[in-house]
Write a structure and sequence with these properties.
The chain has 151 residues and is of the alpha+beta class. The chain has helices at 3-15, 33-45, 55-61, 100-103, 112-130, and strands at 25-27, 50-54, 71-75, 81-94, 139-150. The protein has one domain (3-15, 22-150): Sulfate adenylyltransferase, CATH 3.10.400. The relative contact order is 0.22. The mean pLDDT is 96.
């Protein structure tokens, strides 16, 4: 069994969940090593309690978006698992209607403008990779989560 699978089994045992319980994904936040490890630290400190993604990206990848109750394993850039999160709320909102009241739970920014700047860059790059053009009226899937297990 690989490290991720061992980690998941440890979580299932700890949480007393059925061994057939599946996780949504095992991944990191961010698009480079420095950011991924920085965001992981914010999650582990309890400062990052949400994440945002382009709703259209799920469609472009043929993937189901996370649902309330979904579990995900959060790793560092190198794929080492550090915690399990559970989705507790989903908000669908156009990028250009985001408020700081909503996005501040991502724990990364001090104001809406810096959140917009960072996510605009990330979403533009992601859209380009997936073959579409990011526009500011695109819907964002904003996912609130809680850490339910750490290594």
């Amino acid at each position: 069994m690989n490290t991720t699978q061992n980690f998941w089994q440890d979580f299932l045992s700890h949480a007393k969940l059925d061994n057939n319980t599946k996780y949504y994904e095992a991944s990191y936040f961010g698009d480079n090593k420095e950011l991924a490890n920085e965001l992981l630290a914010l999650v582990l400190e309890g400062k990052k309690r949400a994440t945002a993604s382009l709703l259209k990206s799920y469609e472009a990848e043929g993937a189901e978006p996370p649902q309330i109750g979904s579990y995900s394993i959060i790793t560092d850039w190198d794929g080492k698992p550090h915690c399990v999160i559970q989705t507790i709320a989903i908000t669908i909102i156009p990028f250009n209607e985001m408020t700081f009241e909503i996005c501040k739970s991502e724990g990364e920014d001090e104001c809406l403008e810096t959140w917009q700047d960072g996510h605009r860059r990330c979403f533009t790059d992601e859209a380009e990779e997936l073959g579409f053009i990011f526009t500011e009226d695109m819907e964002i899937l904003f996912e609130d989560f809680e850490v339910v297990y750490t290594a």
